[in-house]
Fold this sequence. Notes:
By secondary structure, the protein is an all-alpha fold. Strands 1-2 form a two-stranded antiparallel ribbon. It folds into 2 domains: 4-66, Arc Repressor Mutant, subunit A (Orthogonal Bundle), CATH 1.10.10.10; 71-238, Up-down Bundle (Four Helix Bundle (Hemerythrin (Met), subunit A)), CATH 1.20.120. Helix 1 (4-17) crosses helix 3 (40-53) and helix 5 runs antiparallel to helix 9. Helices cover 67% and strands 2% of the residues. A hairpin with a 5-residue loop joins strand 1 (56-58) and strand 2. It contains 10 helices and 2 strands, in the order αααββααααααα. The longest helix is centred in the middle third of the chain and has 25 residues, at 71-95.
Amino acid sequence: MARASDSAYEQLRAEIVSWRLEPGTVLAEVELSSRLGISRTPVREALARLVADGLAEPQGGRGLVVTQVSAENVTELFELRQALEQQAAALAAARRDASVFVKLQDELREVPALLAEADAAADPSRLAYYDLVSRFDDAVDEAVRNPYLVGALNGVRTHLSRIRRLSHDNPARLLEAAREHLMIVDAIVAGDARLAEDATRVHLYRSLQSTLGSLTTPLTAQPLTAQPLTPPSATKQQKDVPTR
Protein backbone atom coordinates (compact mmCIF):
# COMPACT_ATOMS: atom_id res chain seq x y z
CA MET A 1 0.00 0.00 0.00
CA ALA A 2 1.33 3.43 -0.92
CA ARG A 3 2.34 5.73 1.90
CA ALA A 4 0.02 8.64 2.61
CA SER A 5 2.75 11.11 1.64
CA ASP A 6 3.27 9.34 -1.70
CA SER A 7 -0.44 9.42 -2.50
CA ALA A 8 -0.67 13.09 -1.53
CA TYR A 9 2.35 13.92 -3.65
CA GLU A 10 0.97 12.13 -6.72
CA GLN A 11 -2.43 13.78 -6.39
CA LEU A 12 -1.08 17.29 -5.85
CA ARG A 13 1.48 16.87 -8.62
CA ALA A 14 -1.28 15.79 -11.04
CA GLU A 15 -3.42 18.77 -10.01
CA ILE A 16 -0.55 21.20 -10.61
CA VAL A 17 0.45 19.68 -13.96
CA SER A 18 -3.18 19.77 -15.17
CA TRP A 19 -3.66 23.37 -13.89
CA ARG A 20 -6.43 22.36 -11.50
CA LEU A 21 -4.09 24.05 -9.03
CA GLU A 22 -3.07 27.15 -10.95
CA PRO A 23 0.16 29.14 -10.56
CA GLY A 24 0.05 31.25 -7.41
CA THR A 25 -2.39 28.96 -5.58
CA VAL A 26 -1.58 28.79 -1.87
CA LEU A 27 -0.77 25.27 -0.69
CA ALA A 28 -1.92 25.42 2.94
CA GLU A 29 -1.14 22.35 5.03
CA VAL A 30 -4.33 22.54 7.10
CA GLU A 31 -6.63 22.87 4.09
CA LEU A 32 -4.82 20.14 2.14
CA SER A 33 -4.83 17.82 5.14
CA SER A 34 -8.60 18.18 5.40
CA ARG A 35 -9.23 17.81 1.67
CA LEU A 36 -6.97 14.78 1.26
CA GLY A 37 -8.13 13.14 4.48
CA ILE A 38 -4.66 12.67 5.95
CA SER A 39 -2.60 14.22 8.74
CA ARG A 40 -0.40 17.26 8.23
CA THR A 41 2.87 15.29 8.43
CA PRO A 42 2.45 13.39 5.13
CA VAL A 43 1.11 16.59 3.53
CA ARG A 44 4.27 18.40 4.64
CA GLU A 45 6.41 15.61 3.15
CA ALA A 46 4.49 15.78 -0.13
CA LEU A 47 4.90 19.55 -0.30
CA ALA A 48 8.64 19.21 0.28
CA ARG A 49 8.86 16.92 -2.76
CA LEU A 50 6.89 19.41 -4.86
CA VAL A 51 9.35 22.13 -3.86
CA ALA A 52 12.23 19.86 -4.88
CA ASP A 53 10.50 19.30 -8.24
CA GLY A 54 10.19 23.04 -8.79
CA LEU A 55 6.38 22.88 -8.76
CA ALA A 56 5.95 24.78 -5.49
CA GLU A 57 7.91 27.52 -3.75
CA PRO A 58 7.78 29.63 -0.57
CA GLN A 59 6.36 33.11 -1.01
CA GLY A 60 6.61 35.66 1.77
CA GLY A 61 4.21 35.07 4.61
CA ARG A 62 1.84 33.03 2.45
CA GLY A 63 3.66 29.74 2.92
CA LEU A 64 4.02 27.63 -0.19
CA VAL A 65 2.41 28.48 -3.51
CA VAL A 66 2.30 26.79 -6.92
CA THR A 67 5.17 28.19 -9.00
CA GLN A 68 4.50 30.61 -11.83
CA VAL A 69 5.18 29.84 -15.49
CA SER A 70 7.09 32.60 -17.26
CA ALA A 71 8.81 33.10 -20.57
CA GLU A 72 12.14 32.97 -18.75
CA ASN A 73 11.67 29.57 -17.14
CA VAL A 74 10.06 28.16 -20.28
CA THR A 75 13.18 29.14 -22.24
CA GLU A 76 15.46 27.66 -19.58
CA LEU A 77 13.50 24.43 -19.62
CA PHE A 78 13.73 24.16 -23.39
CA GLU A 79 17.50 24.70 -23.25
CA LEU A 80 17.74 21.58 -21.10
CA ARG A 81 15.15 19.75 -23.16
CA GLN A 82 17.12 20.41 -26.34
CA ALA A 83 20.30 18.88 -24.96
CA LEU A 84 18.54 15.79 -23.64
CA GLU A 85 16.06 15.07 -26.42
CA GLN A 86 18.49 15.59 -29.31
CA GLN A 87 20.90 13.13 -27.73
CA ALA A 88 18.07 10.68 -27.02
CA ALA A 89 16.86 10.82 -30.63
CA ALA A 90 20.35 10.21 -31.97
CA LEU A 91 20.89 7.23 -29.66
CA ALA A 92 17.45 5.84 -30.50
CA ALA A 93 18.29 5.91 -34.20
CA ALA A 94 21.52 4.02 -33.54
CA ARG A 95 20.10 1.44 -31.13
CA ARG A 96 16.41 1.06 -32.01
CA ASP A 97 14.23 -1.91 -32.76
CA ALA A 98 12.95 -0.60 -36.09
CA SER A 99 9.66 -2.53 -35.90
CA VAL A 100 8.57 -0.52 -32.84
CA PHE A 101 9.00 2.77 -34.68
CA VAL A 102 7.43 1.50 -37.90
CA LYS A 103 4.20 1.02 -35.91
CA LEU A 104 4.49 4.59 -34.62
CA GLN A 105 4.95 5.80 -38.20
CA ASP A 106 1.62 4.28 -39.16
CA GLU A 107 -0.16 5.83 -36.18
CA LEU A 108 1.35 9.27 -36.68
CA ARG A 109 0.14 9.30 -40.29
CA GLU A 110 -3.40 8.91 -38.93
CA VAL A 111 -3.15 11.87 -36.54
CA PRO A 112 -5.11 14.34 -38.77
CA ALA A 113 -8.12 12.05 -38.66
CA LEU A 114 -7.55 11.33 -34.97
CA LEU A 115 -7.54 15.01 -34.05
CA ALA A 116 -10.52 15.75 -36.26
CA GLU A 117 -12.49 13.03 -34.50
CA ALA A 118 -11.42 14.31 -31.08
CA ASP A 119 -12.48 17.83 -32.07
CA ALA A 120 -15.81 16.61 -33.34
CA ALA A 121 -16.38 14.74 -30.09
CA ALA A 122 -15.61 17.91 -28.09
CA ASP A 123 -12.65 16.22 -26.40
CA PRO A 124 -10.50 19.20 -25.29
CA SER A 125 -7.76 17.04 -23.80
CA ARG A 126 -7.38 14.94 -26.99
CA LEU A 127 -6.35 12.01 -24.85
CA ALA A 128 -5.79 9.64 -27.76
CA TYR A 129 -3.28 12.03 -29.34
CA TYR A 130 -1.39 12.58 -26.10
CA ASP A 131 -1.35 8.84 -25.48
CA LEU A 132 0.39 8.43 -28.85
CA VAL A 133 2.95 11.09 -27.94
CA SER A 134 3.53 9.34 -24.61
CA ARG A 135 4.14 6.04 -26.40
CA PHE A 136 6.59 7.79 -28.70
CA ASP A 137 8.48 9.01 -25.62
CA ASP A 138 8.40 5.50 -24.13
CA ALA A 139 9.76 3.98 -27.35
CA VAL A 140 12.65 6.46 -27.44
CA ASP A 141 13.36 5.84 -23.73
CA GLU A 142 13.52 2.10 -24.35
CA ALA A 143 15.71 2.47 -27.42
CA VAL A 144 18.40 4.69 -25.86
CA ARG A 145 19.31 2.03 -23.26
CA ASN A 146 20.57 4.69 -20.87
CA PRO A 147 18.73 4.90 -17.51
CA TYR A 148 20.54 8.10 -16.50
CA LEU A 149 19.41 9.94 -19.62
CA VAL A 150 15.87 8.61 -19.23
CA GLY A 151 15.77 9.73 -15.59
CA ALA A 152 16.78 13.24 -16.55
CA LEU A 153 14.17 13.31 -19.33
CA ASN A 154 11.42 12.23 -16.95
CA GLY A 155 12.19 15.15 -14.67
CA VAL A 156 11.91 17.58 -17.58
CA ARG A 157 8.66 16.03 -18.80
CA THR A 158 6.90 16.88 -15.53
CA HIS A 159 7.28 20.55 -16.36
CA LEU A 160 6.62 20.04 -20.07
CA SER A 161 3.25 18.47 -19.29
CA ARG A 162 2.34 21.56 -17.32
CA ILE A 163 3.58 23.99 -19.95
CA ARG A 164 1.71 22.14 -22.67
CA ARG A 165 -1.51 23.56 -21.25
CA LEU A 166 -0.40 27.01 -22.37
CA SER A 167 -1.11 26.04 -25.96
CA HIS A 168 -4.79 25.53 -25.06
CA ASP A 169 -4.62 22.30 -27.11
CA ASN A 170 -4.53 24.42 -30.27
CA PRO A 171 -5.43 21.95 -33.06
CA ALA A 172 -3.23 23.67 -35.64
CA ARG A 173 -0.15 23.35 -33.44
CA LEU A 174 -0.95 19.74 -32.52
CA LEU A 175 -1.12 18.86 -36.21
CA GLU A 176 2.23 20.55 -36.88
CA ALA A 177 3.77 18.73 -33.93
CA ALA A 178 2.51 15.41 -35.28
CA ARG A 179 4.25 16.10 -38.59
CA GLU A 180 7.43 16.93 -36.71
CA HIS A 181 7.22 13.76 -34.64
CA LEU A 182 6.76 11.78 -37.84
CA MET A 183 9.96 13.25 -39.26
CA ILE A 184 11.82 12.18 -36.11
CA VAL A 185 10.37 8.68 -36.31
CA ASP A 186 11.20 8.43 -40.01
CA ALA A 187 14.83 9.23 -39.19
CA ILE A 188 14.91 6.69 -36.36
CA VAL A 189 13.47 3.98 -38.59
CA ALA A 190 16.12 4.81 -41.19
CA GLY A 191 18.81 4.54 -38.52
CA ASP A 192 20.00 8.07 -39.32
CA ALA A 193 21.21 9.51 -36.00
CA ARG A 194 22.17 12.91 -37.45
CA LEU A 195 18.80 13.37 -39.13
CA ALA A 196 16.95 12.30 -35.97
CA GLU A 197 18.91 14.87 -33.99
CA ASP A 198 18.27 17.62 -36.55
CA ALA A 199 14.55 16.84 -36.75
CA THR A 200 14.33 16.99 -32.97
CA ARG A 201 16.12 20.36 -32.90
CA VAL A 202 13.66 21.75 -35.41
CA HIS A 203 10.67 20.37 -33.50
CA LEU A 204 11.86 21.90 -30.25
CA TYR A 205 12.44 25.27 -31.92
CA ARG A 206 8.87 25.35 -33.18
CA SER A 207 7.48 24.11 -29.87
CA LEU A 208 9.32 26.83 -27.98
CA GLN A 209 8.12 29.58 -30.31
CA SER A 210 4.54 28.34 -30.01
CA THR A 211 4.73 28.15 -26.23
CA LEU A 212 6.28 31.60 -25.84
CA GLY A 213 3.60 33.01 -28.12
CA SER A 214 0.86 31.48 -26.02
CA LEU A 215 2.16 33.29 -22.93
CA THR A 216 1.08 36.62 -24.41
CA THR A 217 -1.37 35.81 -27.22
CA PRO A 218 -4.52 33.76 -26.64
CA LEU A 219 -4.73 30.96 -29.17
CA THR A 220 -7.93 30.32 -31.09
CA ALA A 221 -8.76 26.79 -32.13
CA GLN A 222 -8.83 26.40 -35.88
CA PRO A 223 -10.74 23.73 -37.81
CA LEU A 224 -8.76 20.71 -38.88
CA THR A 225 -8.65 19.17 -42.31
CA ALA A 226 -7.57 15.57 -42.66
CA GLN A 227 -4.60 16.20 -44.92
CA PRO A 228 -1.73 13.72 -45.16
CA LEU A 229 1.38 14.27 -43.10
CA THR A 230 4.80 14.83 -44.65
CA PRO A 231 5.69 11.64 -46.54
CA PRO A 232 8.91 9.85 -45.50
CA SER A 233 10.46 10.61 -48.90
CA ALA A 234 10.42 14.33 -48.08
CA THR A 235 12.15 13.96 -44.75
CA LYS A 236 15.76 14.37 -45.85
CA GLN A 237 14.91 17.30 -48.09
CA GLN A 238 13.51 19.22 -45.12
CA LYS A 239 15.93 18.29 -42.39
CA ASP A 240 17.53 21.75 -42.13
CA VAL A 241 14.22 23.64 -42.08
CA PRO A 242 12.83 24.48 -38.60
CA THR A 243 9.78 22.30 -38.07
CA ARG A 244 9.38 22.08 -34.30
